[in-house]
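Morning run. Coffee first, then this:
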Amino acid sequence: MNREYWRNELPHLLAIVLLVLVSIQAAELLIPGGLSFWIGLVVAMLVGLFYRPLVERLGYAPDHWD
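And here it is:
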């Protein structure tokens, strides 16, 4: 793994972490009574599952994702 790989990959890793945190916080605000661990885990998995196809569709995917 070279420096160019991480230069292309790091913004996506940070975006995934930020999206997971924001999504879990939004779910906490929307669900009365709080958010259980399992629902938070499902939210995090959904963000991770749909991030790559969405980024590829928007045209922001790095070249090595092809």
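The mean pLDDT is 91. Good start to the day.
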